[in-house]
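Repro case for the chain-ordering regression, as requested:
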Amino acid sequence: MSGSKSGTTSYSLTALRAGDRAEFSHLVESTSDSIYRLALRMLGSPQDAEDVVQETYLKALRALPGFEGRSNITTWLYRIAMNEALMMLRKRKPEAFFLEDMEKEDEEEFSEPYQIVDWCCLPENELISGESRKFLDTAVAKLSPALRAVFLLRDVEKLSIQETAAALNLSETAVKTRLLRARLKLREELSEYFGERMKSGLEPMLGQAG
Amino acid sequence: MMEEHNCRIMISVLGEYVDGTLGAELCADLERHLATCPNCRVVVNTLRKTVEIIQEISADEAMSQEARQRLFARLDLMEYLPKPPGAEPERSMLHIRPGEPCPQCRIGVMDYDGMLSLVCPVCGFGEGGCFT
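-- result from build under test --
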């Protein structure tokens, strides 16, 4: 798979570090939608997401002079934003954060796929519009923060495994494990949902035949 | 029984398989298994599709213009706020300073005229005109 989505845009680090406002606004303009999307999916509230975006760039602005450029600047922004979002979540729902549990979970075996329905053939608009879309949003929101963070960075923002690991301060192995766990969980949910839709789509036809 | 055992082993490599990063040997093993196991084929297909449709619904999520404005204001960058799509295209004078090349003809050097408006002496591009 390709690297990060915003990896193609390059910024002058020298200008950014020197406090060049035009260059910083260029960075904000080209990355803020991604940061917002990430924050929105982590927190579920547009207001909180907006706060996270503002905090992210304020922190970046302050930290830029010392930014060494060891990681890609967009990965660095994702890292700041994710920290902000997780901090906000932790304040709101401390019970969702037991680091030990997360690490224990990394050791567990993957739960076996349960739903075996091939719903891939459903028409595209059935899969991504209206009610389905709401269901998909909820399914992502139901993942634990630890799994959601990995899934969003890797699969939605399309960071590489390595970049995701850097943004979350995790090992690449932990990223791969959590990513697969998140994908499998979502697949179960979606299979159950679309499986039902396929059945209910068939029933009227069966009724007519009988 | 043997097949079921294989299915369990295969789960842990599915992530790398759908990403196309699985090593050649394991990849060949998995594909041999997939050829004989319709259930695992369904799992692989629906796993791929799951990622694909969530990517699709997320692609068009963006900040509202109002939120963007508040962000640029908070960062003290209002002068750089890009116009929303659909707004009249217009060359902004805000980025141009005297002594810089003209953004229109790229020949003249921007300078103040007798009315203290920043204009290009070559093509006339500039902020002249009346206050409205």
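Ordering looks correct now. Residues 67 and 97 of chain A are 29 Å apart (CA to CA).
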